[in-house]
Amino acid sequence: MELGKEDNLLNNTYESGSLIAKIYFRWKVMTAIKLAGLTKEDIILDYGCGDGWLEHKLKNYNIHGYDLNPDKTFVKDYTKIRPTKIFVLDVFEHIPVKVIKEIIDNFKNMGNFELIVSQPTENWLSRKVRKLIGKSEVPDEHITRYEEIIEILKQEFKLIKKVNFFTVCHIFLFKN
Q: CA Rg, the chain, in Å?
């Protein structure tokens, strides 16, 4: 399966025909926004912006969407931005560990910021909920496991807060 093909499309997530999926993805973004404690002075990087849902929700903020897919990115070189907040929502599980570490190194060279990360847990309940809404239990494009990602993040950043959504997803706030 092509990287991000199943989950990155708006009609599979935020604009899904499944009410459960739509509520879940919209709740997750709104929770991440609230956790970030944004101000109008913030410079925001949405790493892995996909179809730009966060940009849409934060249209009155200074937000820059970057995606590895050149057809979806709003900026060519995210390393030139000096963000105060970096959102990485449902992204790291699509990326190999080596590349995650390179991305984090790039982030750390960008100054002081807070990092907001959402991660699907892929536990038993998560898999059954995905099946209930008509998706595969674990997407083929999820190539890095939750535990690996969280271990890397905790080694590199200070964990400030974690929000748990019925164990299906965790949203983290880290400080550089």
A: 15
Q: Which two structure tokens, joined as six digits, stand for 150?
A: 């969280």
Per-residue pLDDT tens for 139-170? 888 999 999 999 999 999 999 999 998 788 99
Going from the N-terminus, what domains does the chain have, and what CATH number goes with each? 10-175 (3.40.50.150)
Q: What secondary structure does DSSP assign to 26-42, as a single string?
A: HHHHHHHHHHHT--TT-
Q: For residues 46 and 67, give the distance between their C-alpha atoms in angstroms, rounded to a whole number.
A: 8
Cβ–Cβ under 8 Å, residues 107 and 99: no
Contact 64, 83 (CB under 8 A): yes
Q: Which two tokens stand for residue 112?
A: 């002081």
Compute the half-sphere exposure of residue 131: CA atoms within 13 Å on the CB side of its CA. Answer: 9
Q: List C-alpha distances in Å: 129 to 21, 24, 72, 116.
A: 9, 10, 28, 24
Task: Measure the CA–CA gap between 50 and 142, rounded to whole angstroms.
Answer: 15
Q: Calculate the CA 67 to chain-centre distance.
A: 11
Instruction: Give tens-digit pLDDT for 14-23.
Output: 556 667 777 8
Give the helix ranges, DSSP H, for the chain.
19-36, 53-57, 97-108, 124-132, 146-156
